[in-house]
Amino acid sequence: MNGDDHPARPPPHGAAWHVCSYCNKVYPNLQALGGHQTAHRKEIEEMRRQHEARVQESKQQRRAAAAAAAAAQTADEERSVNLELTLGTGVGGPDLKLRL
Ligand SMILES: [Zn+2]
């Protein structure tokens, strides 16, 4: 840290101080404020990047969960189709015999 952790002192009377719009610290000149706010922008950029990464990750997890659910449903449907075919064969058996 470069002295930013010191509590901000109130600006002396008649002096033009510059207030950081992110954390309300005051700086005696624009150069100091500018350097300080550059650090804020890097923090914000990093937070945004991490947030985007988390959003992407949760999207992928949701997609994977949805795909797994869809696969499970498809398996269920295939099972019930097989069951119907088995029943159909059983029911169709006597019909075929009757027709013979
Ligand atoms: Zn600040």
TrEMBL record:
Keywords (A to Z) from UniProt: Metal-binding, Zinc, Zinc-finger
GO molecular function, one term: zinc ion binding
A GO CC annotation given for this chain: nucleus
Domain C2H2-type stretches: 18-45
GO biological process: cytokinin-activated signaling pathway; gibberellic acid mediated signaling pathway; trichome morphogenesis
Region (Disordered): 49-77
Short name of any one Pfam family annotated for the protein: zf-C2H2_6
InterPro entries named in the record: GIS3/ZFP5/ZFP6, Znf_C2H2_sf, Znf_C2H2_type
UniProt keyword Metal-binding, yes or no: yes
Basic and acidic residues: bias regions: 49-60
Name of this protein: C2H2-type domain-containing protein
Lineage of source species: Eukaryota, Viridiplantae, Streptophyta, Embryophyta, Tracheophyta
